Amino acid sequence: MAPPAQSQRSSSPSQPAGKGEVADVKSQLRNLAGSRAPGVDDSKRELFKKVISYMTIGIDVSSVFGEMVMCSATSDIVLKKMCYLYVGNYAKVNPDLALLTINFLQRDCKDEDPMIRGLALRSLCSLRVTNLVEYLVGPLGAGLKDNNSYVRMIAVMGVLKLYHISASTCVDADFPTTLKHLLLNDRDTQVVANCLSALQEIWSLGGSASEEVSREREILLSKPVIYYLLNRIREFSEWAQCLVLELVAKYVPADPNEIFDVMNLLEDRLQHANGAVVLATTKVFLQLTLSMTDVHQQVYERIKAPLLTLVSSGSPEQSYAVLSHLHLLVMRAPFIFSSDYKHFYCQYNEPSYVKKLKLEMLTAVANESNTYEIVTELCEYAANVDIPIARESIRAVGKIALQQYDVNAIVDRLLQFLEMEKDYVTAEALVLVKDLLRKYPQWSQDCIAVVGNISSKNVQEPKAKAALIWMLGEYSQEMHDAPYILEGLIENWEDEHSAEVRLHLLTAVMKCFFKRPPETQKSLGAALAAGLADFHQDVHDRALFYYRLLQYKISVAEQVVNPPKQAVSVFADTQSSEIKDRIFDEFNSLSVVYQKPSYMFTYKEHRGPFEFSDEIGNVSIGTESADTVVPNRVEANDKDLLLSTSEKEETRGLNTSSSAYSAPSYDASSVSVPASQLSELAISNPSVSGNAPQSSFAIDDLLGLGLAVAPAPAPSPPTLKLNPKAVLDPTSFQQKWRQLPISLSQEYSMNPQGVAALTTPQALLRHMQGQAIHCIASGGQSPNFKFFFFAQKAEESSTFLVECIVNTSSAKAQIKIKADDQSATQPFSSAFQSALSKFGMP
Questions:
Q1: Apex 27 CA angle, 24 and 31, nearest 5
Q2: Ranges for the Beta-adaptin appendage C-terminal subdomain domain (predicted)?
Q3: What is the CA radius of gyration of the chain?
Q4: Is the sign of the CA dihedral 523, 526, 532, 536 positive or negative?
Q5: b vs e for 575-602, b when ≥16 Cβ sit within 10 Å of the residue's Cβ?
Q6: Which fold has domain 610-650+718-839?
Q7: For residues 179 and 198, what is the distance between their CA atoms, to the nearest angstrom?
Q8: pLDDT value at position 840?
Q9: Quick one: which H or E segment has residue 294?
Q10: Which of 52, 602, 804, 806 could cross-link to 787 by cystine, CB 3.0-4.6 Å?
Q11: Alpha carbon separation from 576 to 404, 583, 596 (Å, rounded)
């Protein structure tokens, strides 16, 4: 029997037969180098394609570098392009090979064909090898003066590449000055656009502290340059128009007449077919009129129609980008868009991300005149087969109900949702009814009548179950079955995996106990016993807290857990006004699409130059007295002043030991007390004297759990008093900082209010001085700030020194404290933390 024939593998370029394939290609290239036979260029193309294909899939073809360079001696542009691609790829990883290409690239930069000159210059600048920058200066200088606009365009971008490789070489060759000349004098608009783009990036990379950089930026934003670009704007490509308009948005006109002149000149750009141009023009109009309230409102009216047209006429992706900007404008001025609410109705064929944004906008524009129509439309979406959109629709109805419009009709709609036999609809409606009752307690009877018919077994989502339990506890007097429903939930404590639900259950059974004690006594004991045995720290701590409250005095516990409540007037916004203003300043950028400022999603290296140092010895600190320290920001070099939080690891161990929380030590398995015993004891001592000994608070005395009685807590140390007029000169501060050891190092998380407040650090400095903690130096720029504080005891000259590093992007604050009196470090740390907490930081 003949052996089976072996399958022949295809010799496709993407799958070389073996290591010898590259050697075979190398041999063929060597044979073709210098050949002038007919059809040689076609043969070279096939071999070049093979090499590029191998390179693309990760095969090392650097061994054919010399042969590729020799075969590039041709006038065929396609071969040139493939050769330049190959050379650029291997030049980055092997600078020695890049040196071999310099001669033929410089030769091609002088070719008669402008296309080859441009391609060669682009490839030469793309080598990105520091040792070869000297070879770039000559070709770039010639390219900037080339008669062909394509070559000049490539040369302009080559200057930017050179600046990234060696800024000093670029400046020494006076290329930025040449770019400014081309910006104002070149006939080709694409060359002008490239000059503008390159100059903006060069000056942004130059740092913000340099006087030369500031002067060059002022030149770019001067009236002659702006007007020159605006007068030629119709000649530019769409991309270049966006670039010019972005620059114009930063321009500050001298008087109102100039503002109107600019807007009149750009009026027709609002009708442009390209959405990017329309958005860029919109930003110009909004930024120019910020100081003119009446005109600013008229601008909203003017830009509304073009933006709405773009939403309805573009692709879903474009619609979403434009809708994101409309969403920002609607949130700032909802009354202007209230009559156009029908533009925000969802279409059946729109993607869910577009629908979600439209639902948020419908919620924002709802008012007395359109609430009924909007809520009717939203209720239709609630029956949508798209479950996420149905959920968002129900939430939107609830948000409108909380805006104090026609509440009667909206409440009826929400209660109808509770009767729908869809789990997710019921879950969302329960959460909204809870918020509704917090704001409109007068609707409790109608809502409770419907909620009472819902079985807790049919509610599985944690937030919905927590809302139901909250209502059971809050309105246990009106809901006859509330104690028994809570009892059933407590019996299934072990089956409930959500800590949020268990926390609500503890609070609800406490409230129910104060209102209906005989029916809830047993359930309360079982809930506290289960909570104390819970492995989740928050649940355990809350159960322990409630237990000790009951042990101390039931009337006090009721005042704490179930005090008289006032209706909630306003619910907290998820974003502060400062964050919203920051997003508005970054209009026509990804910040609007992401709905967060750029520093929250960009890498540090893309936020501008920002370096740190580990010493403060080079800080330039003024000699002001402590009374005048509220400080003007110290004009110091950020490189000398600031330290990054990633570099502050030298005493991290102190942070761990000083801030760690020690949970009560006990064996959960020992909690075997019957719930009835707990219940009896929980209400057997309704009036405990406020002077009761500390041992009466020991949990084992009440439950009989066999736990060791915790020792009485140490008396709190006397409050540290600080000298509000403390004085410390900068030299003494630096000497003390170097000499004293670190007494305490801690890291805190900041809340959103603190992050937003730090957009203006002066507010923090004024606040801290009011707490007798004085700032001697500060510096940095968003998102990184650094502060040095000092304080002194009121009774003696003992001094405390503090280094506070804040990163608003990660919402972290790192603090180091040094003190003359080490024993006073902890009281001062508490005082410092308290001062920061009042400001909203840790």
A1: 140
A2: 720-837
A3: 36
A4: negative
A5: ebebbbebbbbbbbbebbeebbbbbbee
A6: TATA-Binding Protein (3.30.310)
A7: 8
A8: 61
A9: helix 293-313
A10: 804
A11: 22, 11, 11
**Residue 715's pLDDT is what?**
45
Q: What pLDDT was estimated at residue 413? A: 83
Residues 789/776, Cβ–Cβ less than 8 Å: yes
Judged by DSSP in three states, 579 sits in helix
Q: Which CATH architecture has domain 19-231?
A: Alpha Horseshoe (1.25)
CA distance 311 to 325: 11
pLDDT tens digits, 443-452: 888 888 888 8
**Which residue in 100, 172, 157 sits closest to 132, CA to CA?**
100
Query: Which residues, 6 or more positions from 46, have their beta carbon under 8 angstroms from its beta carbon?
Result: none
With a CB cutoff of 8 Å and minimum separation 6, the contacts of 335 are: 367
| Per-residue tokens: 751 | 């809340």
* pLDDT tens digits, 193-240: 999 999 999 888 765 446 777 788 788 888 999 999 999 999 999 999
Give the global pTM. Answer: 0.66
Amino acid at 339: S
Distance of CA 388 to the CA centre of its chain: 24
- Other C-beta atoms closer than 10 Å to the C-beta of 776 total 25
Domain(s) labelled CATH 3.30.310.10 in the chain stretch across: 610-650+718-839
Residue 624: per-residue pLDDT: 36
Tokens of 474: 């809050």
Q: Tell me the backbone φ, ψ of residue 649, rounded to 5 degrees.
A: -105, 0
Helix (H) or strand (E) holding 785: strand 784-792
Contact 362, 323 (CB under 8 A): no
Please identify which residue in the block is written with the tokens 């793309």.
Answer: 126
The pLDDT-based confidence of 522 (bands split at 50, 70, 90) is very high
Residue at 45: amino acid letter: R
Q: Which of 263, 365, 360 is nearest to 320 (CA)?
A: 360
> What is the pLDDT at residue 79?
85
For residue 229, the SS3 value is helix
Which neighbouring-strand residues pair with 807?
784, 812
Predicted confidence (pLDDT) per residue in 607-647, tens digit: 543 333 333 333 333 333 333 333 333 333 333 333 333 33
Answer yes or no: is pLDDT of 10 > 80. no
**Contact between 73 and 101 (Cβ < 8 Å):** no
Task: Give the pLDDT band of residue 23 (cuts 50, 70, 90).
Answer: confident
- Side-chain half-sphere of 226: how many Cα atoms within 13 Å? 23
Looking at the DSSP assignment, which residues form a beta bridge with residue 774? 790
What's the per-residue H, E or C state across 386-451? CHHHHHHHHHHHHHHHCCCCCHHHHHHHHHHHHCCCCHHHHHHHHHHHHHHHHHCHHHHHHHHHHH
Length of the chain: 842
CB 791 within 8 A of CB 800: yes
Over residues 688-705, the mean pLDDT reads 36
SS3 at position 319 = helix
Q: For residue range 486-512, what is the model confidence (pLDDT) as tens digits? A: 999 999 999 889 999 999 999 999 999
Instruction: Give the other-Cβ count within 10 Å of 787's Cβ.
Output: 25
Give the tokens for residue 823. 């024993």
Three-class SS of residue 200? helix
- Kindly state the average pLDDT of the residues 242-267: 92
